[in-house]
Specification:
By secondary structure, this protein is mainly α. It has 12 helices and no strands. The protein has one domain: Serine Threonine Protein Phosphatase 5, Tetratricopeptide repeat (Alpha Horseshoe). The chain is globular and about 55 Å long.
Length: 251
């Protein structure tokens, strides 16, 4: 790449990250996505990595907004364009499938991680989380609980707080909160999400718990609490939050 192309690539990545942050916090990002589309279109001669930024970013926005089928289409596209996106896109796709109670979709996403030859503690935690969801969807509750226990333990040990929260949402969605372990995981996840200001995900967790308990959802976003952290698209938390999350390695 020439110097101006590197600058454009850096700008594109930063714009995409900012959009994912805003989307995860429940902010309106339609205009920013249009700007990103114009930017990536202007770089038509650039490589696949840049062209994957738009579906990757739009996919995570769709994920936050609960458009789960669209999430899977966009994030599959981003990984097809640029395989390096797979360690983030496949787990998100699996969560989307699990929230839709789509066991076959979750199996496909697990298979894509396996086929890519990805390794490392974070990827293994993702695999355990996905396997737990599949087990729960298949009615194998004891197996699901054992796998969720392993996945949550690994995510906590690795400091993958965002992943921990998403796994707990899976657990609440599929197993409810009657089980003490599920209730504890949901409570910890809610603390994480409130701290990050991840409003759409707090609402999803609360909706799953409300459905289980047969009670109405929170009436006001003020009930969701405050936050002091900033979530970014690769699962890390910016300085000032007191949280630090590492991500996946490919080997």
């Amino acid at each position: 790449m020439l110097a101006d192309e590197w600058e454009a690539a850096d700008r594109t990545a930063m714009v995409g990250t900012a959009i994912v942050i805003a989307g995860n916090r429940g902010e309106e990002v339609r205009e920013q996505l249009l700007d990103l589309e114009r930017l990536t279109t202007s770089l038509a001669h650039s490589g696949a990595a840049l062209h994957a930024v738009l579906p990757y970013t739009a996919g995570f926005v769709a994920f936050a907004q609960g458009r789960l089928a669209e999430t899977r289409v966009l994030l599959h596209e981003s990984a097809d364009l640029y395989l390096a996106n797979l360690p983030m896109s496949a787990p998100a796709n699996a969560h989307a499938a699990i929230w839709e109670r789509n066991a076959s979709g979750a199996r496909e996403d697990l298979a894509s991680l396996d086929a890519a030859g990805l390794h490392g503690p974070a990827v293994e935690a993702d695999r355990m989380s996905i396997r737990a969801g599949i087990a729960a969807l298949e009615g194998r509750t004891s197996d699901a609980l054992a796998l969720y226990r392993e996945a949550l333990s690994a995510e906590r040990e690795l400091g993958l707080l965002w992943d921990e929260a998403l796994t707990a949402i899976d657990m609440a969605t599929l197993l409810g909160s009657d089980l003490p372990e599920a209730a504890a995981a949901a409570a910890a996840a809610r603390e994480i999400l409130v701290r990050l200001g991840a409003t759409p995900f707090i609402e999803r967790l609360d909706a799953a718990l409300a459905e289980e308990r047969g009670r109405p959802e929170p009436k006001s976003r003020a009930e969701l609490g405050g936050h002091d952290g900033h979530l970014i698209g690769d699962g890390t938390v910016e300085a000032g939050s007191g949280l630090q999350i590492s991500r996946h390695a490919k080997g």
